[in-house]
Design brief:
Elements: H1 6-9, H2 44-60, H3 63-90
Helix pairs in contact: 2-3
Amino acid sequence: MLAGLESLWWPEQTPNEHMNADPEEVSQGWEPLPDEKLPRPTYFPAGLAMGVTFFFWGFITSWVILAVGAALFIASLAGWITEIRRERRES
């Protein structure tokens, strides 16, 4: 019964296997990745979301949680903007 489902869990080719392949060797349906620099991963969007959540949660519960949410929001926004400006300066 599970014999037909194993291809769903273990595909024959993962998306990263063809990164360095020639365009002629790329499997049907796949496209080679473009040669462009991708931004580094960051935690600032998650911090921004948590700041907004704590900020609005603070409206319901207490001013301490509201202040923590506001501080987290401001710190995450400043860090994210700083990182974006640094990446643009480097490129």
